[in-house]
Write a structure and sequence with these properties.
alpha/beta; two-stranded antiparallel sheet; 7 helices; 34% helix; 28% strand
Amino acid sequence: MASEQAQMLNRNAEVLSSPAVTMLLSQIRAKSTTQKDYVNAADRLMGILAEEGLARLATPMTVVTPCGTCSGLEAPLGSSICAVDIIRSGGILLEAVRKVCPDLKTAKVLIQRDEKTALPQFFYKKLPNGIEKKKVILCDPMLASGGSALMAIDCLKEAGVFEDNILFLNVVSCPEGLRALAEKAPGVRILSAALDEKLDEHKFIVPGLGDFGDRYYGTAGYDEGLWGSDGK
């Protein structure tokens, strides 16, 4: 159902659906979740998203078993992929991808949202040579307004990467972000673990999960009582 809704907003969007994804999302969404449990659940969810993302780059094959043959998927070569993260939270997802595909190339793009205007600001990029010849997995846990993602996509396009060679992985998306990418980067494929209701007046996803990076890294929110604390 969520995938059908997402595709009405963006024809290249897909939302994962499984009890495991729902269980782990429930843990990282809950306001009461401690940092220890948040990190544990987030890492497990990132692992699922990483595997599913790589599977979207696989090619059909015939598998020869000890008893016969069957249809299957051949994993992509790590040398054909570059994973790009939007610093800082994107690095969490990138490391999950790199864990299951350790020989892929990696790249960094630093884009931060201005807290007053909610507009993205570009600061830094480090891309490998030959990125234009690779499949690119763009990593950022939250797709809100789409501003940061579109700025990162523009950075990749300037380096010669075609939109249809980009797969954008995220944990939570929303209609505003999906529409923005459909309008300005229609060739980019999107794989998300959840499609939420909307953005609020502060451009935060509702119901969302709060600030993904702050909850994962413990930089803010626990002492202030915004979300649970394990006392560490």
